[in-house]
Design a protein that fits this description.
This protein is mostly helical. The protein has helices spanning about 1-10, 15-20, 20-40, 45-70, 75-80, 85-95, 100-115, 125-135, 140-155, 160-170, 180-205, 210-235, 240-260, 260-270, 280-310, 310-330, 340-345. Helix 3 runs antiparallel to helix 11 and helix 11 (about 180-205) packs parallel to helix 13.
Length: about 350
Amino acid sequence: MIAPVYTTELSPATSRGFLTSLPELFITLGILFGYLSNYFLAGLPNRINWRIMVGIAGAPAAAIGLGVLAMPESPRWLVMKGRYGEAKKIIQKISHTMEEAESRFQEIKMAASRLDSENSSQFSGKGVWKELLLTPSPSLRRILIAAVGINFFMQASGNDAVVYYSPQVFKAAGIHNKRHLFGITVIMGLSKTFFVLVSALFLDRFGRRPLLLLGTLGMVFSLVGLGLGSKFLAENNSKPTWAIVLSIIAVCAFLSFFSIGIGPITWVYSSEIFPMKYRAQGTSVAISVNRLVSGGVAMSFLTIANKITFARVFFILAGIMTMATIFFYFLLPETKGKTLEEIEGLFEDRPSDVEN
């Protein structure tokens, strides 16, 4: 939860999309390394291979622990606490020029002053939670709906289930050779990593909405293709080669479109749209929905697939992503190039006033 909020609050508007999408890039790299380790350690005895994997995972965890010690505090948090001198020094370090640093500092001070003038001196506790969840303003309600919605659809897409259970999906497609299964999962990991990187590089150039809508539409067609391939494989004992190839291509396409769109953009969008006063609490609500839906989908995916077949599950997911595309088109305005203080104003208009 902290990583996207922290990155958002330190990033300039011109590169916030790229920097805030980096967590998703490194999550994807971690998944890829997991696939690669599975492939290369598969020949070792089971009592050894999992110990090596756990041991390797300890190295980046230790690096993060040490790196946190050198991280500066969020300048927006410092301003809210009245520690202007410390905030200004940090902004100067992370800005290209002194003029940019001064401009960012004044924008943050102005936003904090506006909250003070509204008798909003407390930025935590029951008051903020009540305003956020029980008595939100119309603009705050739209922000909360947008943040919760994009996090819900990110996990309701079934991406995590496909990542977790891809070997079972391919076994159902008639691929039983362990090396072949591991090889396909490595290809999946490479596809995810490449397209997350593409998204990160172009997010601040093309904007959030175009990549998000492209990604969700691509996921719809990929899931339909995967459903058709799975249906033909389940109904034909001969396991036609074209259906196996279609299923493999559809899975890789599904993960690629996820990685260019909703995967990284969810973290960027949900952490940048909340006003300063509600950012920590609002983002925590959105990410809590994300994790709950992820757990629910992961735990129920195989059970449901065994009851109604993989093909029907994929067709249902295609329907869910169709609804997601409609939701994003009408309720998520473009935030590219906007400062965090400017973004709140985007949600003060009617929901139909969404920039294309």
